[in-house]
Every structure is written in structure tokens, then in C-alpha cells.
From TrEMBL:
GO terms for molecular function: RNA binding. GO terms for cellular component: small-subunit processome. Residues 669-710, 742-788 are annotated as: Disordered. This is WD repeat domain 75. InterPro entries: Beta-prop_WDR75_2nd, WD40/YVTN_repeat-like_dom_sf, WD40_repeat_CS, WD40_repeat_dom_sf, WD40_rpt, WDR75. The keyword rRNA processing applies. The keyword DNA damage does not apply. The gene is wdr75. Keywords: Nucleus, Repeat, Ribosome biogenesis, rRNA processing, Transcription, WD repeat. It is found in: Nucleus, Nucleolus. GO terms for biological process: positive regulation of rRNA processing; positive regulation of transcription by RNA polymerase I; rRNA processing.
Length: 788
């Protein structure tokens, strides 16, 4: 068994955002939290994920803002590195490698052995006071630690169970506490008898964080949720991750419509979680009862769920283990209008015992069948029946067949890919049925051991049926009804890829400290073409193949089984893991890896200095283009000044003049005036008359006598046009005093102007005051006519 270097196990999608306390930025605009091997930056106002900071190879274990730069954050990871990020632009600035390996943090922390044990602590920002929370729900305020006299403490009590989190506000005027009650309590410091409450936050509070300015509170919850609270009393945003409860009782499913992962959510719900966008789409209330957060209280919970192949029907089983087991089977139809599932049929007491498995047959246009297997010794087939066209009723579900085998308890069931066969296990025997007639076709036996899981082969391997026990993995050939091969493995989970012939089998290697191992193989070839040890600590409880949006290319032969589907698996520690190939990792890193330019330690690391560094590449490109042209322009000098530190910038008067000129040019281009239009017309006339005089480039001196320069750029054309638009009316006096300046063309046009000009002067003298320039133009032809 060999491990493959081009594939590794990573946290991708659905990671715990409550693993460590989040960080609120100094301006309260962003919230930063860890999420598996990456760091997420959320907007506190819109709940949108702004950036995914990716670069760590292992679990991120801590975050802290850079005290010398409020736009940066430090992160540390189990990969032994500390990374500095610019979280506003989502770029990596610096990586520091530590020569040590941090211990794994996946193990759960054992509970406190006594009710008055310390559970959390917080220090007052100004006074000599420390607040501690305890397992009995009490909060103690300890004072005079830094004084010579003996310390004292006082006690306040509201929480009925352990206090999970404590936090002082920045000014120290309030103390915040939270626990199992899902209530944020705000104590007035110095007046602890006065307190305010923010109830119904959804789940137990795990961490409390306050923004530096005190305007936002942030609570982290046990259901992998972060709540942003504004003005101490109003919930302004909720950032919901994949809900990690006490355990997943349903199977991991993929919704064919949304490609979302479907599994247990908060109590009594199913959650639909998008693995592509790494966010929860919605929760579906299955139990439809208010959940009471109290231990040792029997309440309904969702234990089984199944989706048909088109995503049109959802089947759920809810169960309550009181004195007598109460079971309900519910069928939900997808509503195109609401884009959600609506309850269609409720079947109370579908079996006399707990239901161990449910599955849909591959959907067809004619019929849809659901099979449920129970420990009462029977399996039942439920058929969707259409009502009479004359009746104003919806389609509903009813029992179509009840099957058993020698009074044995059935354990699991599955349909073949085309729906023509149904396999049901009864202890050590596998029975194969025809859903068309419900006839028993054959029975298959195997070495001693109860069948725990069944799986049909796909595509070219559809003639094989796989069965797993706690000791063996067996493969039967359905054409010969004989055992094809078997191997001694303690398989805990068996599942087939719906888009290929591949089958994944998880088992525990007891010889290597209970580390889980996975085999990927084809039923026709018992030798695995992929295997990997030490996937995680403990057992893999659930797994699913999720179809990819696009096939993955460039993989090595050993990882080509991941081309069309991605394998996700859930551990007993509620960690959602998956396999990542080297080409896929390189593609993701190419999209997210934006390393900032090398920082000179001799220059102060200010935000403006980092801004200059970000523009280096763009300015170098501009300089390369300019250098390909002959001559040196002022624009190139301005671009070069951006390549150095702040002390080496261009002079302030040069910067201001360029900026003001650019703003003026932009304003003039957007709002042309009559004077500019007249001047442009005069420029056109002058260009027609003096076309033999070539223009001189702006950067050349008039006395150099040099030859014509290179073609002007657009920026230089705009600047030259701005120079042309300047008012030169003060020169007109000199021009009109010279009788030689006038041309014959102007003298011919003058009589028309002499006739028309006096009339508007007599009628509308007011425009003469507003636009004196036309008056000068009118007077000029009059003088010209007099000269001859």
C-alpha cells in the first residue's frame, strides 16, 4: 500500500469557523475567522465573504491583528509557519518558518471534573480586576492582585450551567458572558446587580469578542455560527457555517438540483450546504416543533434521509426514543415556486421497529419507489400513486409491498444503477429482488458475519454486488450468482462513485494507532489503484462522492479516479475532509496567491508604502512601453518615482501640478464651453491655413534645433489640447495693431458680418456682456475692412 504525493487530505468546505475566536478589525468593517486551512474575511454589514486567504498547508490555529499596522493580520498553523496577510486586498506579505511541529488540535478537550472549576477568564482593561467563569454558572470578580493587601472577590450568578465565555468592553464599563442558554448577558461593571439580556441567539455561546471601538459584539456558537451584534441589542449579521452537531445520523447526500451537501443541521432540521461557495443555502425544518435545550429530554430528531436521483422527492424519518419508540416517515415534494421542499405525505408508525435504511429507486418518468428497512424483520416498498383526474387532490404515497426472509432482521438495502434489482441484507444472507414483480430472484451467502453495507457496481461493473462485514469485503458476480472474490478487511463504510466504476472502502487499521485507511478500486479488479493511510484519527462515519462542475485534467494515473467526482468524508470528530490533487492545488494557489513585493526593512512599513509596492508591476509595464520610444518624457520620470520608498517620491509641487492638471483636463473634457468651441474652431482654421508648419513635440526645447520627436501619446495629446484651450485673448491687441496679419479670405467674408453684426448688438446688448469674445471677433473684421 503506497501513498501518493500528488494527492493529500485537506479541509475544504464546511470547516469550523468557530474553531478559534474571530477577530474584528479596528474600523469594525471586517470580521476575520479561521476555516480549516484557510482564513476567511467577512463583511460585518453584508455577511459576504470578501477574501479567502489561502496558503497554509495544515489547520490554522490562531489569528491576531498586527499591532503596528491595523490593515494586517498574523496567522499560525500546524504546518509550522506564521504568515502575515493584508486582509483588505487578500494578499500574502510575509512567511516565517518555525522549526517545530505543533501538536494536533483535533482531539476534544475533556470536560471539567467539578462544577466550580474554572471555564474561562477575562481581564479588565483598566482596573486591577480579573473575571472568571465557572462550571456551576457563577462569575467571580477578583480584585487587588497587584496590591500589597490580600486579594478579594465577589460573585454574581445567572447562568444555570457552565459559563463558556467572558469579555470586557474596551472601556471596561460592561462585562459580557454567555453559555448554554443561548443568551448574551451584559453586566454593568461596578453595578453587577444591573444586567441586560439578548436572548434566542440559536445555540450555545462559545466565544465573545468586542470590536476595538466597542460598537460591535461578536458571539461564536457551538453550531458553527458567528453572530454580529450592533449597539448591544440588535443582531445585524449571522455568518453560518456547516452545522456540526453532536453527530450526523443521516447519510451524506448531494442534492442533484443545487449540488449542495445535505445532512443533519440544527436539531430537527436538514441543512443544504453549498460546497462550491462554502456557505449554507438554507435549513429545512423536518420535525416542525420547538426544540428545548435541555439534557435528558426525549425529543424528535431526524435519523434518516434520502433524495431521489432528480431531486424531486425527499424522504425523512424522525424518531423519538421515549418509553415506546415513536417513528414518522415523511415524503417531501420539491416546489418550483418556493424552490424548496414542501411536505406531501406523513406516515405515522410505518414500521413496528426502528428504521435502519431508506433508499429511492432510480427515478423514471412512470413511477418512483421508496424502500424502507426496519429491525421489525420487514422491508416495505412505498409507491407514488396518482389521484383520479376528477378529484382535486395531489399525488400521495402508499405501501405497495411488504417483504421478509425467514424472520431475520434486515440491515441495509440498495438499488442497482438501472433500478431493475433490489438487494436487501438479512444477517449473513443477501437477497436480490425484482422491483417490477417483487419476486425473490436469488440469495447470496458469504463467510460468517452480518452484512453491514451493500453497494452495486456502476457502468461496466454493474454486474457486481459488493457486501461488507466487520471482518470481510466480498464481491459477487450477479451473472453467475457466485462469489467473485473476498478479502479480510474491517470495512466501516462502502460507497460507489455514480459517475465511474470506482468504489471507495474505508476501514480502520488497528495496528497503526486506529488511523483510518481508504482503498479505491474497481469491482472487476480487486487490486486497488489508490490507497492512503492515516487519513484521520478514528473512524470515518459518513462519505459521499460529489460530482464536479467540470472534469479535472492533468492528474497522474493514480489520482484519475478524482477526475469527475470529489470524495468528501466526515470523521467522528465532525471534521469534513476531502482529497486535493496537485494540479487542483496549483490552480487554486495561482488564483489566490498574490505575494506582495519584497519589503525593505529599512523603510517604515506604512499603508502608503504598501500601496506603492502594489503599483510596482503596473508602473514597470508603463515604463517598458515608454522606453521603447525615443526620448525621455516627464511621464516616465513620474512613473519611476513610484518604484522607491516614500522619501524618494517626486517633489510635491510636481505631483500637485500633475494632479490638478489632470482634474482640470477631465472637467474641461466633460463640460465644454462656448469659448472652447470657438477656440477649437479657430484652431481648425489656423491648422488649415498653416498646415505647412509641423508641430513641435512638447518635451523638446525651442532652441535645440532637434529633429521631430516620436509620435505623441494620448496623455500628451490631452495635455497639449489643454494648452491650446488656454485664453490668449490678451495677445489679440498686438495682433489687431498689425495690418499685415489679415488674409484675403477674411476680407471676402467681412461684408456679410458687417451687415449682420449690428442687428444683434442693437437687440440684445446683454449677451455682449456675458460673451465678450464674440465682440472682439466682430470688431476685428470692422477694422480689417477699414484698412484697405
Amino acid at each position: 500500500m503506497v501513498a501518493h504525493a500528488d494527492t493529500r487530505v485537506v479541509h475544504r468546505g464546511g470547516s469550523k469557523i468557530n474553531f478559534r475566536a474571530p477577530v474584528i478589525t479596528q474600523d469594525s468593517r471586517f470580521l476575520i475567522c479561521v476555516s480549516g486551512e484557510c482564513i476567511k474575511v467577512f463583511s460585518t454589514s453584508t455577511e459576504e465573504c470578501i477574501h479567502h486567504l489561502q496558503g497554509h498547508k495544515e489547520l490554522v490555529t490562531g489569528l491576531v491583528l498586527n499591532p503596528s499596522n491595523h490593515l494586517q493580520v498574523f496567522s499560525c498553523s500546524e504546518d509550522g509557519t506564521i504568515r502575515l496577510w493584508d486582509f483588505t486586498d487578500g494578499i500574502l506579505i510575509r512567511v516565517t518558518l518555525l522549526h517545530l511541529k505543533t501538536p494536533s488540535t483535533l482531539h476534544s478537550v475533556p470536560g471539567h471534573c467539578t462544577r466550580n472549576a474554572f471555564t474561562c477568564v477575562a481581564c479588565h482593561p483598566k482596573d486591577d480586576c480579573i473575571a472568571t467563569g465557572h462550571g456551576d454558572g457563577k462569575i467571580r470578580l477578583w480584585r487587588n492582585f497587584n496590591q500589597e493587601k490580600e486579594y478579594t472577590f465577589s460573585t454574581v450568578h445567572w447562568h444555570h450551567s457552565g459559563v463558556n465565555a467572558l469579555c470586557f468592553t474596551p472601556e471596561g464599563t460592561n462585562l459580557l458572558s454567555g453559555g448554554l442558554e443561548s443568551v448574551l448577558v451584559q453586566w454593568r461593571y461596578g453595578q453587577e446587580g444591573q444586567k441586560d439580556f439578548l436572548p434566542r441567539l440559536g445555540s450555545s455561546i462559545k466565544e465573545i469578542v468586542v470590536s476595538p471601538d466597542g460598537s460591535l459584539f461578536c458571539t461564536s456558537h457551538t453550531d458553527n455560527k458567528i453572530t454580529v451584534i450592533k449597539n448591544c441589542t440588535k443582531v445585524s449579521a449571522v455568518i453560518q457555517g456547516l452545522v456540526h452537531g453532536d453527530g450526523v445520523k443521516t447519510a451524506l447526500m448531494v442534492d442533484p438540483r443545487t449540488k449542495a451537501l445535505v445532512l443533519n443541521g440544527k436539531p430537527g432540521h436538514l441543512q443544504f450546504y453549498s460546497l462550491q461557495r462554502d456557505q449554507q443555502l438554507y435549513n429545512l425544518d423536518i420535525v416542525q416543533q420547538e426544540y428545548i435545550n435541555q439534557s435528558n429530554l426525549d425529543q424528535f430528531e431526524v435519523v434518516k434521509a434520502a433524495l431521489d436521483s432528480r431531486g424531486s422527492w425527499l424522504a425523512t424519518v424522525e424518531q423519538r426514543s421515549a418509553k415506546e419508540v415513536e417513528i414518522s416517515l415523511k415524503l417531501w415534494a420539491f416546489d418550483e415556486h418556493t424552490q424548496s421542499f414542501v411536505l406531501n405525505t406523513t406516515i405515522s408508525a410505518p414500521h413496528d421497529g426502528p428504521i435502519s435504511e431508506i433508499c429511492f429507486s432510480p427515478s423514471s418518468q412512470n413511477s418512483t419507489t421508496l424502500v424502507s428497512v426496519s429491525l421489525d424483520g420487514h422491508f416495505k416498498a412505498w409507491q407514488l400513486t396518482q389521484p383520479d383526474p376528477s378529484d382535486d387532490e395531489e399525488a400521495s404515497w402508499s405501501c405497495d409491498f411488504v417483504g421478509d426472509y425467514h424472520s431475520l432482521e434486515p440491515k441495509c438495502c440498495c438499488f442497482s444503477a438501472d433500478g431493475s434489482l433490489l438487494a436487501v441484507s438479512f444477517k449473513e444472507v443477501v437477497t436480490v429482488w425484482s422491483p417490477a414483480s417483487w419476486d425473490l430472484l436469488t440469495t447470496l451467502s458469504q463467510p460468517p458475519g452480518a452484512i453491514q453495507d451493500l453497494c452495486f457496481g456502476r457502468l461496466s461493473c454493474s454486474k457486481y454486488l459488493l457486501g461488507a462485514t466487520d471482518k470481510n469485503l466480498c464481491c459477487w458476480n450477479l451473472l453467475t450468482c457466485s462469489l467473485e472474490w473476498s478479502t479480510a478487511l474491517d470495512v466501516s463504510l462502502l460507497l460507489a462513485d455514480p459517475l465511474s466504476e470506482n468504489v471507495a472502502a474505508f476501514f480502520d487499521n488497528n495496528q497503526t494507532s486506529c488511523l483510518c485507511v481508504v482503498f479505491v478500486f474497481r469491482p472487476s479488479e480487486p487490486r486497488p489503484h489508490f490507497s492512503q493511510q492515516a487519513l484521520c484519527t478514528g473512524r470515518v462515519t459518513r462519505a459521499v462522492f460529489a460530482p464536479r462542475d467540470e472534469p479535472l485534467d492533468g492528474c497522474e494515473e493514480s489520482s484519475q479516479w478524482l477526475n469527475r467526482s470529489q470524495l468528501y468524508f466526515l470523521t467522528h470528530n465532525m471534521e469534513l475532509l476531502t482529497f486535493l490533487t496537485k494540479p487542483e492545488e496549483e490552480r487554486l494557489m495561482a488564483l489566490s496567491k498574490q505575494v506582495a513585493p519584497t519589503i525593505d526593512d529599512s523603510v517604515a512599513m506604512t499603508p502608503f508604502y504598501l500601496l506603492l509596492g502594489k503599483h510596482r508591476k503596473r508602473q514597470e509595464e508603463e515604463r517598458d512601453i515608454l522606453s521603447s520610444q525615443s526620448g525621455v518624457r516627464n511621464l516616465r520620470l513620474w512613473g519611476e518615482s513610484w518604484n522607491f520608498g516614500v522619501p524618494n517620491l517626486a517633489p510635491g509641487n510636481h505631483v500637485m501640478s500633475s494632479c490638478v492638471s489632470s482634474m482640470c483636463l477631465l472637467r474641461d473634457e466633460e463640460q465644454p464651453t462656448e469659448v472652447e468651441m470657438e477656440s477649437e474652431k479657430e484652431e481648425e482654421d489656423s491648422e488649415e491655413e498653416g498646415a505647412s508648419v509641423p508641430p513641435r513635440p512638447e518635451h523638446e526645447s525651442s532652441d535645440t534645433g532637434a529633429k521631430l520627436g516620436p509620435v505623441l501619446t494620448k496623455a500628451e495629446h490631452r495635455e497639449l489640447r489643454g494648452v491650446k484651450k488656454l485664453d490668449y485673448s490678451w495677445i489679440r491687441g498686438l495682433v489687431t495693431s498689425n495690418p499685415v496679419v489679415n488674409t484675403t479670405k477674411q476680407m471676402v467674408k467681412t461684408p456679410k458680418q458687417r451687415v449682420k453684426t449690428p442687428k444683434p448688438m442693437a437687440k440684445t446688448p446683454k449677451p455682449m456682456v456675458k460673451t465678450p469674445k464674440p465682440m472682439v471677433k466682430t470688431t476685428k473684421p470692422m477694422v480689417e475692412t477699414t484698412n484697405p
